[in-house]
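Quick one: C-alpha cells for this chain, please?
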Amino acid sequence: MVSGGCDIQYSLAVPGHVELSVYGLMGREVKRLVAEKKSAGQHSVIWNCQDRDGKRAARGVYFIRLDTPGFRSVRKAVVTR
C-alpha cells in the first residue's frame, strides 16, 4: 500500500532497454517511469502516485510492469490516501 509514493527497485544482470510503467485496472498506462537503456546492476525509481499529467492518482489498485529483454514482471500497488 502506498500513499505518498513508492520506491521501485530492480536489478539487471546485463545492460539493456528497460520500460517501467504504472497501469490502471483497465490496462491504461497511467505513468511511464523509465524508457531507456540502463546499465547492469541495481536501479531505483520513485513513483510519486501521480499520473502523466501530474495529477494525483485516485485511490485504488494499480499494476507496475517492468519489461527488459527476456524478462517481464508485474506487481500490484494499492494507492491509499
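Residues 21 and 32 are 4 Å apart (CA to CA).
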